[in-house]
Every structure is written in C-alpha cells, then in structure tokens.
Amino acid sequence: MTAHSLKKLSVVLWIILLLAATMFLVFLFLSAETQMFGDVNQRDSWSNLIKTATDIERLRNIADNLVSSGWATSDTAILLCRLASGAFLIIIIGSIVGLVQVRKMKRHLDSTTNTTAR
Predict the structure, then answer these.
(1) Using only C-alpha atoms, what is the Rg of the chain?
(2) What pLDDT is recorded for position 33?
(3) pLDDT at residue 14, rounded to an integer
(4) What are phi and psi of 38, to 5 degrees?
(5) How much is the average pLDDT of 39-60?
(6) How far lies 59's CA from each of 13, 46, 70, 71, in Å?
(7) Separation CA 7–CA 114 (nearest Å)
(8) For residues 77 and 32, what is the distance between their CA atoms, to the nearest angstrom?
(9) H helices within the chain, ranges in order?
C-alpha cells in the first residue's frame, strides 16, 4: 500500500510541477499583452492626438484604434485570469490528493510500527 501511495503522490506532484512551470511560461509571455501602452510617453502621445484632432473623421479613426486595442488587451487579461483560476484549482485538488496520500502512508507506517513493537 505504501508503494502505491508513493507512486500516486509522485504523479500528483509531477502534474503540479508541470502545470506550475507551464503557467509561469504562459504568464511570462502573455502578460506584456495586457498593457495597452508601453510607457507614459506613448499614452501621452495618444492623448495629444485626440486633443489636436480637428476633424471628426480623424477622431473616429483614433477612437476606433483605441477601442480595438483595449478590447484585445482586456481579452488577453481575461484569458490569463481564467488560466490562473484553472491552474489554482488543479493545484488545490492535487495538494488535497497529496495530503490524503501522506495521511494514508502515515497510518500504514504507524500500524506497521505498532504491530512490530508488540
């Protein structure tokens, strides 16, 4: 029983490790996509474009571009939040499975120790 419990625990821990490493890489590469402007200067340049626009068509084009960028940015942020929530749920479930396996092994070892001590 102990070998079986150790094997289950090992599999669960490997799954958690792979999930955590994968999520780290996903967040590393996609987190930059959640930023609409690279820096304050870029934000200010868009703001100045809006303030200096003289015709309504130019202003509409700027607004359309900003809305599209904002949609893509928020869409990426929502994806990252959902991936994080799923990863945390799997990590929680895996941790519970691991703790149950450790408890089973402890009980088995305690019963083996008590049997040999008699």
Answers:
(1) 26
(2) 78
(3) 87
(4) -65, -35
(5) 86
(6) 54, 11, 16, 18
(7) 24
(8) 10
(9) 2-30, 40-52, 56-117
